[in-house]
């Protein structure tokens, strides 16, 4: 079996730069599904009111 070549960070960034917005959206969805994470920004906690 042939050994797979690992991409460098620079190669990954270059590949992402060449993708369309639709391709990037699909990539994000696939990464979220694969790793069980969300790319959404966390909600900011409201400060407690003095009282």
Features of the shown structure:
single chain, 51 residues, mainly alpha, 2 helices, elongated
What does this structure look like?
With 51 residues, the protein is mainly alpha-helical. It has two helices and no strands. The mean pLDDT is 88.
C-alpha Rg (nearest Å) = 18 Å
Estimate the mean pLDDT confidence: 88
Measured distance between first and last alpha carbons: 68 Å
Helical content class: 40-55%
Overall structural class, as computed from helix and strand content, comes to mainly alpha
| Helix segment tally | 2
List how many beta strands DSSP finds: 0
Unreliable parts:
none
Apparent shape = elongated
Strand content bin: under 5%
Topology order in helix (H) and strand (E) letters: HH
Largest sheet: none
């Amino acid at each position: 079996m042939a050994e797979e070549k690992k991409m460098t960070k620079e190669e990954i960034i270059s590949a992402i730069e060449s993708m369309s917005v639709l391709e990037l959206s699909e990539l994000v969805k696939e990464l979220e599904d694969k790793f069980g994470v969300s790319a959404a920004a966390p909600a900011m906690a409201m400060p407690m009111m003095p009282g």
